[in-house]
Design brief:
Blueprint (H helix, E strand, L loop, with lengths): L12 H22 L2 H25 L16 H29 L5 H25 L1
Helix pairs in contact: 1-2, 1-4, 2-3, 2-4
């Protein structure tokens, strides 16, 4: 019976975050050379405000980070898994709010439109990557 079900593998949260980060960095370099430093910095911060909390969420939700690293397995752990997801989502939400607050209070040369566009595009990229990796798996 054990041979009927393939072993569970860890979700590709780190892989998705690295791809997001690579795309953001490529865009930032292109923007630096074409539209200038303020636009590039704004795009970098918008991308970072997406990538960092999402990476934290993925690592925390699947307990790849923290004291219970890798211990969520099987049906008996379902309540703990749900709790882990709630804590991860709360942490991600707080990190995002604090990140935006810090950016708007400490960065004086900022283009808010580019910041939000970069953040939004990074979120859309995450959805696309999750969908593609989910259909491959």
């Amino acid at each position: 019976m054990a041979g009927l079900f393939p072993p569970m593998r860890n979700p590709p949260v780190v892989q998705i975050s690295l791809i997001q980060l690579a795309v953001v960095l490529l865009a930032v370099v292109a923007l630096e050379f074409t539209l200038g430093r303020v636009i590039a910095l704004s795009a970098l911060l918008g991308g970072a405000l997406c990538v960092v909390p999402n990476l934290y969420f993925g690592l925390r939700a699947f307990e790849l980070l923290g004291p219970n690293r890798g211990k969520i397995r099987g049906a008996r752990a379902s309540q703990r898994a749900v709790g882990s997801f709630y804590r991860a989502e709360t942490g991600k939400f707080v990190m995002t709010l604090v990140g935006f607050a810090l950016v708007f209070t400490s960065v004086k040369t900022l283009n808010p439109a580019v910041l939000f566009i970069s953040y939004g595009l990074c979120v859309i990229l995450q959805w696309i990557l999750v969908a593609r990796l989910h259909t491959k798996g």
